[in-house]
Amino acid sequence: MEVTSPEQESAGPLTRGCQWLKALPKEFCAKVMGIAKMAKKLGQDDPRRIIHSLKVGLALTLVSLFYYFKPLYDGFEDSALWAVLTVVVVFEFSVGATLGKGLNRMLATFVAGALGIGAHCLATLSGRTAEPILIAIFVFLIAAIVTFMRFFPRLKARYDYGLLIFILTFSLVSVSGYRDDQVLKMAHQRLSTIIVGSCISVIVCICICPVWIGEDLHNFVAANMEKLGNFLEAFGDEYFKVSEEPQSNVNKSFLQGYRSVLTSKSGEETMANLARWEPGHGPFGFRHPWKMYLKLGNLTRECAYKVEALNSYLNSKIQTPAEIRGKIQGPCEKASRESSKALKELASAFRKMVRTRSAILHIASSKTAAEELKNLLKQSVWGEADVLEIIPAASVASLLLEIIECIEKIAEAVYELAKVASFRNRDATVLPERPDLLHQGAVQQVSDIDMLHHVITIAE
Predict the structure, then answer these.
(1) What pLDDT does residue 450 have?
(2) Looking at the chain, which terminus has fewer C-beta neighbours within 10 angstroms, N or C?
(3) Residue-level pLDDT at 448
(4) For the chain, what is the HEC assignment?
(5) d(CA 427, CA 429)
(6) Which residues contact 146 (CB under 8 A, 6 or more apart)?
């Protein structure tokens, strides 16, 4: 809110106008500097954005040649502008999104153009009077049916853009045919230019610094597991420190990283749908099980909701007595720490696409600590303490047990995905085939030198 001095209030309109003009260059420079800083930050956060902008400019320059050079222009005429429009609409940040839009646009244009020509021919055979009526009926039926199809979840997820282009192309071809007898030529030119624009977009997107949305999804899921592990790593120490120093002003932003996991569902679903359009590349082969990433993401979010409940006890007004707190501190910290190690081990192996069950050891240790914590609360820590003072500690123990169960499910999902996606084996490690070994705490290893099996059994 601007504050004006008495001199400014008493000044006339001309004086205030002069003052505004004098301040205008400074305000303009400040805004320009603000925009420049924002642009610099966007580029630094993800340099791929700068490369993508250059790729779009290159694709548009290449497709514009069909309009600039007469030999190319003679083949397409004014329809060459559709190729330029196609590049603008189809070219997306990732390969999956560009391929999805390009294939949707080409297929929808081909099918809708063929149907439009067929509708035009049928309407022409009915006579000049009935022709506009039949065309109107065809347009109404096709538009209504295809629009309703866009409400189907699977069609909307993968083919919504194609269905939209289908309606547009069919309407243009069938309606334009009423005034233009060269409807076949028009449909052919439109299809050709769209194919040219889509192919140039796809080629530039794949051949020059490609951005694979599947790789982003892979790293995104691994990062979510790491965020939960970071919280659990610090929870034990922070919980007891907060109990002793409730007025501490230490920055606890590192404990809030898990919150982004709670709202990650829509992003994961979008990336999974786009990743399914991408061809095999690098460690991600053809028909990579992208749907299993959604299952793993759901389990991670389930764990994140329990972590959210656990986080509420960091600042609880009702604190457990110091005597009881001292008895449960060891098992509580151990359960939290081992759970963190299990999640981080799973995230690391998953990110590197390695098949290993080393996280089983940490899960077994965390279960042992959690059971010890539960037994302490059942047997020896009640004493003369008030029930309300015991509830926070009992709730923390219960939540830790539930989180460990969630981590077990996450581990099983990771191992299943690793098997289906053919992750490489870690040196000197072979995965056991029986999933029940995860609960028995058994690790099976084999030496790469002599191929002798060594079985290690860990008693719970």
Answers:
(1) 37
(2) N
(3) 36
(4) CCCCCHHHHHCCHHHHHHHHHHHHHHHHHHHHHHHHHHHHHHHHHCCHHHHHHHHHHHHHHHHHHHHHCHHHHHHHHHHHHHHHHHHHHHCCCCHHHHHHHHHHHHHHHHHHHHHHHHHHHHHHHCCCCCHHHHHHHHHHHHHHHHHHHCCCHHHHHHHHHHHHHHHHHHHHHHHHCCCCCCHHHHHHHHHHHHHHHHHHHHHHHHHCCCCCHHHHHHHHHHHHHHHHHHHHHHHHHHHHHHHHCCCCCCCCHHHCCCHHHHCCHHHHHHHHHHHCCCCCECCECCCCCHHHHHHHHHHHHHHHHHHHHHHHHHHCCCCCCHHHHHHHHHHHHHHHHHHHHHHHHHHHHHHHCEECCCHHHHHHHHHHHHHHHHHHHHHCCCCCCCHHHHHHHHHHHHHHHHHHHHHHHHHHHHHHHHHHCCCEECCCCCCCCCCCHHHHCEEEEECCCCCCEEEEECCC
(5) 6
(6) 163, 166, 167
Q: Please tell me the pTM assigned to this model.
A: 0.79
- The pairing of strands 442-446 and 453-457 is antiparallel
Instruction: Tell the burial category of 318 from Cβ atoms under 10 Å away from its Cβ (0-12, 13-18, 19+).
Output: exposed
Q: What is the CB neighbour count within 10 angstroms for residue 262? A: 13
pLDDT, residue 54, reads: 94
Q: For the residues of 73-112, what is the DSSP string, one character each?
A: HHHHGGGHHHHHHHHHHH--SSHHHHHHHHHHHHHHHHHH
Nearest of 105, 141, 135 to residue 119 by alpha carbon: 135
d(CA 335, CA 319): 20
Both tokens of 207, joined, read: 């051949």
Q: Which residue has the tokens 């899960």?
A: 363
Q: How far apart (Å, rounded) are the C-alpha atoms in residues 457 and 460?
A: 9
Count other C-beta atoms under 10 Å from residue 207's C-beta.
9
CA–CA separation, 218 and 284 (whole Å)? 10
| pLDDT of res. 60 | 92
Environment class of residue 340 by beta-carbon count within 10 Å: exposed (0-12), middle (13-18) or buried (19+)? Answer: buried
Q: What would the two tokens of residue 191 be?
A: 């299809």
pLDDT of residue 83: 84
pLDDT of residue 203: 94
Residues of the chain with pLDDT under 70: 1-12, 70-79, 177-183, 242-255, 315-324, 379-389, 426-460
